[in-house]
Write a structure and sequence with these properties.
By secondary structure, the protein is mostly helical. The protein has one domain. Helix content is 67%, strand content 0%. The model has no long low-confidence stretch (mean pLDDT 94).
């Protein structure tokens, strides 16, 4: 995997940390990877089908 740095609004980070805290994701990194994967799927693959 490649390391990247992003800036997000404080509210997004707080919500992301809450998702990790309640156990929906094992880490912020996992949640972000899944969100990026889903975005790519929705924006790229769905439109090219």
């Amino acid at each position: 995997m490649k390391l990247i740095t992003v800036n997000i609004p404080k509210a997004y980070l707080e919500d992301l940390e809450e998702l990790v805290k309640i156990g929906m994701y094992s880490s912020r990194s996992e949640a972000i990877r899944i969100a990026v994967r889903d975005l790519i799927w929705d924006e790229y693959w769905d439109q090219s089908s």
